[in-house]
Specification:
Elements (H helix, E strand, L loop, with lengths): L1 H41 L5 E3 L8 H9 L9 H19 L2 H12 L4 H21 L7 E8 L4 E8 L1
Antiparallel strand pairs: 1-3, 2-3
Amino acid sequence: MPHRNKNKQLAQQRRRERHNAERKRELARRAENAVLRKTKQVLEGESIAVGLAADGVKMSEVLREFVEPYYEGGATKEVYNKLLTLGVAAWNAALLPPDEREDFVDEVLEVVPPEVRAAMKLLIANMIARKEREFAWCRRSIIEFTLDDWGDEWHIKVASTL
């Protein structure tokens, strides 16, 4: 009888873990969608480029370089995707007038669990400062991105304004 109870407890624990993992994936998807939705609203009517633009800049490379200091090697696709999503939010917020940034960031963070909002807001503020300091030369907004796992590397595709 004790063996059955232990198996039952393990099965319940696995169900909880699966449920929590599904919930986290859903929250990440919502956060990414919120960033993209808000960015598209702000940039309505802008010309968009995918790949190499006329200026020779590949935004996928720029985005990778932008988030690099915050990336811890060996991260899963899900974790790296979240980092890129935060990076896109910070990048696009940095392009807004300073008086509009806080509202933009607050709207993006509405889908983040309340217990991590303050930390995420601080991270985004740090990223905005990095964008202004080291990437001020690039005024292109990021519309959306995709992340693919190519086995030995991450492949990022970015759609951005021209």
